[in-house]
Amino acid sequence: MSGGPPWPTWFGWADAKPLLVAGPCVVESYEICARVAEKLTRLAPQLGFGYVFKASYRKANRTRITGFQGIGDEQALEILARIKRDFGVPVLTDVHETVEVPAVAEVADVLQVPAFLARQTALLLSVGRTGKIVNLKKAQFMSAQAALFAAEKIASTGNTRIFLTERGTFFGYEDLVVDFRNIPRLKAGGYPVLMDATHAVQKPNTAAGVTLGERAFVELYAQLGVVAGADGIFLEVHPVPEASPSDAATMLPLDRVEPLLRRLAQLYGLQ
């Protein structure tokens, strides 16, 4: 596990365990979120993982104006609060502007800074000042060192409860690749590191104005992340990905999660 801060205690866990951050791309309904949370709050602890439910309450960086942005901020945050209460699980969601931070911090246990916003100083300082756990996504255009500089901005507030997440690097205009050297490079900064195995398989900027991807490589990227030293895995999961209005091409179907987690548990030495 990471040599950085004792992050399991951030969640009130007594012992160190690999982290699983997983859930649908965006809050669509309570029912969809609950199906994912019910399965993973049961499965993850059985296999030795600490589990955090994730879902964006709003998608603020869609390619086109017609892209689905959400069901409404208030309703989505209420659903996240229900998931947290009904399943006893920490929740993670994104923030996009400083004005959003106070309201989101009332619900979320982990505030996520999206990759495209990873250098926004005011936003980084704002999330840091909440004292909440922060997940900083390394932008597709950033080196590991640049991501560590961004983490320094958060830490300058006195809040060092920071995760860094690797999610791939632009390879031309319409593809991403993962430089797995970034995982030990990020960990060298003293922060725990997650591998985002679903966003890393995206194919952005397509002519259709929709982000595509290669879901077939999600399990491979997750396993490679563990081998490279990631402290946990970030997955977007959905009962029927093809029916989702966001990231339909890359989310992992719910029925493929258990075999993957069993394999990851083996790699982590949990089984």
What attributes characterize this protein structure?
disordered N terminus; 32% helix; globular; single chain; TIM Barrel; two-stranded antiparallel sheet; alpha/beta; 8-stranded parallel beta barrel; 271 residues
Explain what this protein looks like in three dimensions.
By secondary structure, the protein is α/β, with parallel strands linked by helices. It has a single domain, classed as Aldolase class I (TIM Barrel). Helices cover 32% and strands 18% of the residues. It is built from eight helices and 13 strands. It has helices spanning 30-47, 73-87, 101-105, 121-129, 144-155, 182-187, 218-228, 257-267; strands at 19-23, 50-54, 91-94, 110-113, 133-137, 162-166, 169-170, 176-177, 193-196, 202-203, 212-213, 232-238, 252-253. It has an eight-stranded parallel β-barrel with strand order 1-2-3-4-5-6-9-12, surrounded by five helices. Strands 7-8 form a two-stranded antiparallel sheet. Helix 3 links the parallel strand 3 and strand 4 (110-113). The longest helix has 18 residues, at 30-47.
Layout of helices and strands:
Layout: E1 19-23, H1 30-47, E2 50-54, H2 73-87, E3 91-94, H3 101-105, E4 110-113, H4 121-129, E5 133-137, H5 144-155, E6 162-166, E7 169-170, E8 176-177, H6 182-187, E9 193-196, E10 202-203, E11 212-213, H7 218-228, E12 232-238, E13 252-253, H8 257-267
Parallel strand pairs: 1-2, 1-12, 2-3, 3-4, 4-5, 5-6, 6-9, 9-12, 12-13
Antiparallel strand pairs: 7-8, 10-11
Helix pairs in contact: 1-2, 4-5, 7-8
